[in-house]
Amino acid sequence: MPEQKRDVIYEEIMDSLREYGVHMLNFHKIEKEDRNYLERYFEAEVAPVISPSTIRSSRLIMHR
After folding, report:
1. Contact 2, 9 (CB under 8 A)
2. Which domain of life is it from (predicted)?
3. Measured by CB atoms within 10 angstroms of the end CB, which terminus of the chain is less buried, N or C?
4. Which of 46, 12, 42 is nearest to 27 (CA)?
């Protein structure tokens, strides 16, 4: 995809998100207390949903 077209699509998506109150922030410019909260929230609520599930080998059952 040409870079210019990608930029146009990106801006369209960002404009649409702003209509719903979603804004991009620079993580390092957020107050430390808020960053800590966001990190904990991400680890507890977001990462488990977007990460593939893992199966511990001790729980595998072999069938023949």
Report:
1. no
2. Bacteria
3. C
4. 42
- Are 14 and 24 within 8 A, CB to CB? yes
Per the prediction, the chain carries an average pLDDT of: 84
Q: Which tokens in the block code for residue 7?
A: 């930029």
What is the token pair recorded at 28? 């390092």
Return the percentage of the chain with pLDDT > 90, whole number. Answer: 58
Residue 38: other Cβ atoms inside 10 A:
14
User: How far is Cα 63 from Cα 18, in angstroms, rounded to an integer?
Assistant: 52
pTM metric for this prediction = 0.52
Please give the DSSP secondary-structure letter assigned to residue 20: T
CB 47 within 8 A of CB 39: no
